[in-house]
Amino acid sequence: MPGARQSTSGAQAEGTACSTPGDSCSTNWSGLEVWNGTFTGVSADWTIPTVTPTGTALEDSSTWIGLNGDPTFDDSYEPSPIQVGTDSPSESGSIVYEAWYELLPGLEIPLFEVSPGDAIQAVINETSPGNWQMAIGDLTSGIAWSASDITYDSPGLTAEWIEEATDLCTGSADSDCAMSQLQNFGSVKFTQIAYAHTGTDNAHD
Length: 205
Prior knowledge:
Number of helices: 0
Strand order of the largest sheet: 10-9-6-5-14-3-18
CATH class: Mainly Beta
Distance between the termini: 15 Å
Order of helices and strands: EEEEEEEEEEEEEEEEEE
CATH architecture: Sandwich
CATH topology: Jelly Rolls
C-alpha cells in the first residue's frame, strides 16, 4: 500500500507549503508524485481550468502527467521526463489554451487548442523498452492526438500528476529561460489516476 506526500507550490499557496507532515516543498510544482520501482505508464483525467493572468507579462500554468520528472531520484541530476498535458500561456490580456507533449531536453510541442471547462484524458505507456505510446484527448470537443512510435530513453524513476508554473524561454540557452508567474487557476483535480510499474512503490502529493 503506497504512502502519500503532498508537493505544494509556494507560487500557488504561499504560507501553506509544507504545512502538513510528509509534504514536500516545491517552488513551481503542486500535485502528486509516486516513486520507487520502475514506472512504465501513467494516466489521468482533468478539467481545463479557467485562468486569470496576474498582469500583462508572459505567464503560464500547466497541467500534466509524466514520468521521471524529479531530479531528486535521478543520480545524474539530469532527468529525462516524458510529459503530456495542457497549458494556458497568456500575455497582454490574450490567453491561449492548448494541449502539448514534451520529451526533455526537447521543447514543448503544441498539439491542438482546448477550452476552459473541457474534459481531458491523457496516457503515457511504454510498449517495449525505449518505445512509447502517448495520447491526449479533449472529451468535450472530440479532438485527440496519439502517437505509438515514440523512441525515448527514460529510466522511469517517478510518475507525476502536476500543476506547474512552467519555465518560459526566449532562446535555446539555459540563461534564456525563467520560471513563469503562475496565473490564478483556481484548482485542478486529477481523476482516474493510474500508473504501471515494477517494484515497491511510494507516493507523495
